[in-house]
GDSL esterase/lipase At1g74460-like
Amino acid sequence: MKLTLTLPILVTILTHALIGGCNCKIVQFIFGDSLSDVGNNNFLSKSLARANLPWYGIDFGNGLPNGRFCNGRTVADIIGDEMGLPRPPAYLNQSLTEDVILEDGVNFASGGGGILNETGTYFIQRFSLYKQIDLFQGTQDLIREKIGSKEAEKFFQQARYVVALGSNDFINNYLMPVYSDSWTYNDKSFIQYLMETLRAQLILLHSLGARELMVFGLGPMGCIPLQRVLSTDGECQDKTNQLALAFNKATSELVVELSNTLPNASYKFGDAYDVVNDVITNPGNYGFSNSDSPCCSFGRIRPALTCIPASTLCSDRSKYVFWDEYHPSDSANELIAKELIKKLGFLNPNQTDASPPTPAATGPSSDEVGR
Ligand SMILES: *[C@@H]1O[C@H](CO)[C@@H](O)[C@H](O)[C@H]1NC(C)=O
Ligand SMILES: *[C@@H]1O[C@H](CO)[C@@H](O)[C@H](O)[C@H]1NC(C)=O
Ligand SMILES: *[C@@H]1O[C@H](CO)[C@@H](O)[C@H](O)[C@H]1NC(C)=O
Ligand SMILES: *[C@@H]1O[C@H](CO)[C@@H](O)[C@H](O)[C@H]1NC(C)=O
């Protein structure tokens, strides 16, 4: 960008340089799977994981499908809104320009994506975390060209980052016998493999400027309707839940360690496992009437892999914890978001720091479970 440096502009630039700030907004960059996808997969024409048919989106905006794997908002939507941060558009949205990126950030999340490249191949097209980071690097090139590398560096260092993946690495990889990881690893060595990969990815993000970053753990993914239907008695699959707990523990330790060792890093781990587990066990305490079946289902045929126009909906969508076989409903997401905000102390009204609080955003992914 060629700037004609009129005096006021020069003064502005100097002021910002002096205070070490950046003449730009604080935005979010979101890396995730279907719990955080806001439309990327709808542009992947061969993807089998797309929320592009009714009744997805029925309680969002105009009620048409918008790419979210939910009837309404994702947890990230809700937390970001509460924090006053803009909702980042999907990376593949045609209206994404440098100006939009500088105003709103970018959401790279993709349904079916995992920490591992090989996760979710069954869906044919999806962005795994490495691919999402590749795309982010392309975004950085564009912004550097637009505002110069010095301002761009500040812009990317003051942005908020969310990394919310992992459930597909289990549900759509390790736990499925069609994937070679399922016979190559055991529980312990698979989680080790995930941690080595995630460590490299989080260090890579740091080298690209990420300083304020949140990683979200997994919910009790053995209790999603799909997993219950696959168990003989309709109960939660304990083995799957144990894997989620082990993943959360290892990820939490990894994030603390990286936050302590990477320069200027403020990396946090958010885990909504207990909250979601309690909602599932005691739905009535939270105003829900059902916590074991999907609101959108195809009659008695279970599992229906996705919500489709021919499906029937439950009579009160706000009383179901799960929207489809994998994903929480809008009201469950709201409850999860509120609990995460409380638990992790975001939005502490006593914070007088001028900069917006860390975008807890996306605590959601934690609870996401699949696709
Ligand atoms: C693209 O993003 C804009 C806002 O940034 C939004 O209004 C629009 O609905 C998005 N398009 C699609 C197809 O999701
Ligand atoms: C994972 O995929 C990315 C491209 O998205 C590639 O650059 C990288 O080498 C792959 N890593 C492994 C371990 O296969
Ligand atoms: C860490 O922050 C200090 C003070 O803002 C800055 O001088 C330094 O370059 C930063 N280091 C890295 C690696 O970001
Ligand atoms: C904020 O400060 C008030 C008064 O010092 C205190 O009572 C309150 O607990 C604080 N709230 C939080 C969320 O820290």
Observations:
- Strands lie at 28-32, 106-107, 160-164, 212-216, 266-270, 290-294, 296-297, 312-313, 320-322.
